[in-house]
Design brief:
Elements lengths: L11 H4 L8 H14 L1 H14 L6 H21 L1 H14 L9 H15 L58
Helix pairs in contact: 2-5, 3-4, 5-6
Length: about 180
């Protein structure tokens, strides 16, 4: 990556946020409910990333996503900790690739707890693949005009003399 002198990078204090210090199995176990709970923040962040094409402009949206994730796992810890730990432990120990298929019983217990205590229903299959329109308060970035380059080599005039190729044509099977 080439950097120029006029590139400004954010200060380290702008980038410092509390990390979500959880294991892979824990994140897999909570992923469906987390995606539903933080859907608005995630969509806003991804829209910013796609529109701006510059991650430096989306730092605040990323902080909101991290804060939402922390808030979600705090709520899970306060209301469904034992059910969630059983489910995450099953996901961690039952397969080498964190497959959820062998943990359907503990998943059902966890899903019921989330629905009863936090009123978060597990999204149906294919929910995150559905197309949605995201409404945002952020102004749309200005559209950059396409670069127009002058023709580097002017075209040859049509009335010039056309000399046959010195060593013949590459297309030897074609005759004039």
């Amino acid at each position: 990556m080439v950097l120029t002198a006029d590139l400004t990078l954010p200060e380290e204090s702008e980038l410092t946020v509390p990390e979500v210090n959880l294991s892979t199995a824990t994140l897999f176990a909570g992923s469906f409910h987390l995606g539903k709970y933080c859907e608005q923040a995630n969509n806003e962040f991804m829209l910013c990333r796609m529109e701006e094409n510059d991650p430096r402009k989306c730092i605040n949206e990323g902080k909101v996503v991290t804060a939402c994730t922390m808030e979600f796992f705090r709520k899970v810890k306060n209301s469904c900790m034992s059910e969630f730990n059983q489910y995450a432990n099953c996901v961690d120990k039952s397969s080498g690739d964190y497959s959820l298929t062998k943990c359907r019983k503990t998943q059902g217990v966890y899903d019921n707890c989330m629905l009863e205590k936090l009123n978060i229903e597990r999204p149906k299959f294919g929910y995150f693949c559905e197309a949605r329109v995201h409404d945002t308060k952020r102004p749309k970035p200005p559209v950059e005009p396409k670069a127009v380059y002058p023709d580097a080599t002017p075209a040859l005039p049509d009335d010039r003399e056309k000399v046959p190729a010195r060593f013949g044509s590459r297309f030897y099977w074609m005759t004039e």
